Amino acid sequence: xxxxxxxxxxxxxxxxxxxxxxxxxxxxxxxxxxxxxxxxxxxxxxxxxxxxxxxxxxxxxxxxxxxxxxxxxxxxxxxxxxxxxxxxx
Length: 89
Hints:
- By secondary structure, this protein is mainly α.
- It has one domain (6-88).
- The protein contains three helices and no strands.
- It is flat.
- The chain starts with 5 loop residues before the first helix and ends with a helix.
């Protein structure tokens, strides 16, 4: 029969204290982000930069896509990229 002695109890407490210290100081809480709002902010920022470029007399950027094959997912991807590029300028 194993009876805990002082050294076993102390070792367990030290381990528990170290684990508590780790949780308090090194463990980060999850931060919930809104991806849709973040994407909208990025698009608006890019749109502003493109507007500044055009106002300065530069040509606006242009997106061209070449689709090889007939994968419906590729068509959807390119359609969405073209839509985003049209919005940003």
